[in-house]
Amino acid sequence: MRKPLIICDFDGTITTNDNIISIMKKFAPKEWLALKDGVLSKELPIKEGVGGMFGLLPSSLKDEMTAYVLEQAKIRDGFKEFVSFLDDHGLPFYVISGGMDFFVYPLLEGIVEKNRIYCNQADFQGDSILIKWPHLCDDKCENECGCCKPSIIRKLQGEGDFLVMIGDSVTDVEAAKCSDLCIARDYLLKECEDLHLHHVAFEDFHDVKRALEETLEVKEWL
């Protein structure tokens, strides 16, 4: 019997939209578009692209930007119930996000404890926003991920654990490659299809819960 380890992305997965993209559309000059396109095409490392996008924004926007993202962000249907389901069954669950602490932590407050959340840090001390990267790639990854999901997974995963990755975007592809089951939507779903990864599509977390329950290894664990 293989114990499951469940890893979940944040932006566009737990939330219904990508909060970094929302911030950039609202506050950034047009130069952010080239950086975004470079990341999506994989021509630009995530760390460089995302760091560059936030570097376009003055730190003086902190309060306005924080209020905006917390007001417009929406948690995907079924997520709170899904976390309760995992907790009730003692299933290990972690959020690994390329998002920023100033919106990830408050949006997950009361749902997921901070010690189960890995994300980047925004520094507002200088003239422009500086992103700090507390979870850089280990010696097995050279992708300059910023928040390196595979590196964190290697620290969390025990020998023989059945890895479930839940995600939606380009930042989740490398983690999906490590997974035994990827529960995917949007960009990541197409990547899973193209790479022939073991995957299931989802729209909300009721779908995610069903996918887990239908997985033999998880059924045996419940």
Automatic annotation (TrEMBL):
Recorded superkingdom: Bacteria
Catalytic activity: 2-hydroxy-5-methylsulfanyl-3-oxopent-1-enyl phosphate + H2O = 1,2-dihydroxy-5-(methylsulfanyl)pent-1-en-3-one + phosphate
Pfam families cross-referenced by the UniProt entry: HAD
Alphabetized SUPFAM superfamilies for the sequence: HAD-like
Gene Ontology molecular-function annotations: 2-hydroxy-3-keto-5-methylthiopentenyl-1-phosphate phosphatase activity; L-phosphoserine phosphatase activity; magnesium ion binding
Residues forming coiled coils: none
Pathway: Amino-acid biosynthesis; L-methionine biosynthesis via salvage pathway; L-methionine from S-methyl-5-thio-alpha-D-ribose 1-phosphate: step 4/6
Task performed by this protein: Dephosphorylates 2-hydroxy-3-keto-5-methylthiopentenyl-1-phosphate (HK-MTPenyl-1-P) yielding 1,2-dihydroxy-3-keto-5-methylthiopentene (DHK-MTPene).
Protein name as catalogued: 2-hydroxy-3-keto-5-methylthiopentenyl-1-phosphate phosphatase
Organism field: Bacillus swezeyi
